[in-house]
Design goal:
deaminated glutathione amidase activity; 269 residues; Nit1/2_C-N_Hydrolase; C-N_Hydrolase; six-stranded mixed β-sheet; C-N_Hydrolase_sf; hydrolase
């Protein structure tokens, strides 16, 4: 049994401000006895438009935001999953989820495969889509599969991660309010039930700027589909939630209901 913390915040276009909020969440996670902290998509910043978003992106190795998170992770001996933006080589950026281990090293990262073009949001204006599903990474909370936000609507990724025996699947997010109300919990529970993994979805909350508001409701679902945490976020203040990840519980569920795929009938993903 390992304690995991989920951080919920409202990132703005100020990376310095967002970093100081994260440092507070890191301290709270340590005080709560957590071994890992899960932060949302785009924790480094949420910009007003595509142009500003591209102008703010920093390379992963030298990003002052990420260096600050890595230093804090090392100092606190806390593993951290965090969403950031990095420049792509075509003038756009990559929407990236990083796994930083308890020594402050970047152990793995994943670039969002599916871009969210819906309503006023046109992610493809600023983001270059990633090209691969990344092998689950061994961590203090188990084997973790990385995905991001809108990827939640595409079970092929989580099924591929299940095939690679991911014990935890992360969906760092910044869901919109209307789609969050309609789909968020249902999709997260479905992904947990069909993969028999813990689903951890740290989310942005509240008004980032005059144009954008996120749904919040950071959530953790256990491998049986039970909601262990739902951060309703009164006042959109930065806060953490805490859950216990019990990998033996997952084994019991897997053994009790083997999900044998009929790959003789349909393709394996
Ligand atoms: O803009 C950034 O900097 C960070 N990226 C995001 O917030 C992305 C793209 S706009 N948001 C989503 O994917 C929301 C998905 C969603 O709401 C749904 O699937 O219903």
């Amino acid at each position: 049994m390992v304690t995991a913390a989920i951080g919920q915040l409202c990132s703005t276009s100020s990376m310095i401000h967002n970093l100081s909020t994260c440092k507070l969440l890191i301290k709270n996670a340590v005080d709560a006895g957590a071994k890992a902290l899960f932060l949302p998509e785009a924790t480094d910043y949420i910009a007003i438009d595509a142009k500003e978003s591209i102008s703010l992106a920093q390379p992963m190795e030298t990003s002052p935001f990420l260096l600050g998170i890595r230093d804090a992770a090392k100092e606190a001996s806390l593993a951290i999953n965090v969403g950031i933006h990095v420049p792509a080589n075509n003038g756009k950026l990559l929407n990236r989820s990083c796994w930083i281990n308890e020594n402050g090293d970047i152990e793995s990262y994943y670039d969002k495969l599916h871009l969210f073009d819906y309503g006023n949001l046109k992610e493809s204006n600023s983001v270059e889509a990633g090209k691969e599903i990344v092998k689950p990474v061994e961590t203090v909370v188990g084997r973790v599969g990385l995905t991001i936000c809108f990827d939640l609507r595409f079970p092929e990724i989580s099924l591929a991660l299940k095939r690679q025996d991911a014990q935890v699947i992360t969906y760092p997010s910044a869901f919109t309010v209307p789609t969050g109300k309609a789909h968020w919990e249902t999709l997260l529970r479905a992904r947990a039930i069909e993969t028999q993994a813990y689903v951890i979805a740290a989310a942005q909350i509240g008004a980032h700027n005059s144009k954008r508001t996120s749904y919040g409701h950071s959530m953790v679902v256990d491998p049986w589909g039970k909601v262990l945490l739902d951060m309703t976020g009164e006042g959109s203040e930065p806060e953490i939630g805490v859950v216990d990840v019990d990998l033996e519980h997952r084994e019991t569920i897997k053994k009790g209901m083997p999900l044998m795929r009929r790959t003789d009938v349909y393709p394996e993903v």
